[in-house]
Amino acid sequence: MTKRKRKGFTLIEMVIVMFIISVLLMLVIPNVVEQRNNAEKHSADAFIRTVQTVVDMDSYGETPITTQSALLDKLTKDQKERFQKLNLIYDTTSRTVKVDSNGAKH
């Protein structure tokens, strides 16, 4: 009997490798998704604090921000887009920026 040279992997070896990779992915993907969601939440919180700082600093000026439209005029184009994407509102009574829980567009 002559030994023949093997070229490549057997089917069972390929299946085992694919199984190991899929198990690793099942362990890693949920953590990555959770970390991404946490990062987005922290980023949104930081943005809200930034916009609130704009409101607070402007309250010391001669013309304090009294409407959401006036607040949006103080923001850059990117900040305006993010303000609307995060569904934020400016509460004129409490002079705070918060997420609109009603989901209404202003």
From TrEMBL:
<feature type="transmembrane region" description="Helical">
    <location>
        <begin position="12"/>
        <end position="33"/>
    </location>
</feature>
<keyword id="KW-0472">Membrane</keyword>
<keyword id="KW-0812">Transmembrane</keyword>
<dbReference type="GO" id="GO:0009986">
    <property type="term" value="C:cell surface"/>
</dbReference>
<keyword id="KW-0178">Competence</keyword>
<dbReference type="InterPro" id="IPR045584">
    <property type="entry name" value="Pilin-like"/>
</dbReference>
<dbReference type="GO" id="GO:0030420">
    <property type="term" value="P:establishment of competence for transformation"/>
</dbReference>
<dbReference type="InterPro" id="IPR012902">
    <property type="entry name" value="N_methyl_site"/>
</dbReference>
<dbReference type="Pfam" id="PF07963">
    <property type="entry name" value="N_methyl"/>
</dbReference>
<protein>
    <recommendedName>
        <fullName>Competence protein ComGC</fullName>
    </recommendedName>
</protein>
<keyword id="KW-1133">Transmembrane helix</keyword>
